[in-house]
Structure of Chemotaxis protein:
Amino acid sequence: MKLRHLLAAGTAATIAYLAVKHREKIAQETTETIDSLQRMQDSYQNIQEQLAFIQDYQEPLQAMAKDLQYKLRVYQQTIAGNLNEIQKIQEKYQS
């Protein structure tokens, strides 16, 4: 056998020994990683559902905002007209 083959076999044997020696820790970390991935997927799904919910309400809220802006302009114009009338009446009685 060549030295290269001996080194490769020795390295493989060392890696196998270390894997067996630390198998419980490796198994625990693998389980934790899988659990973490599952929680991330659940969070992602929850975020997607929340985003869809928000997007469903976006159009009606925009329509309500436009309606409220229109009503505010009408109210301001009405108030401006009423204030003009009040000022005319005040001027009439102050004179």
Notes: The radius of gyration is 38 Å.
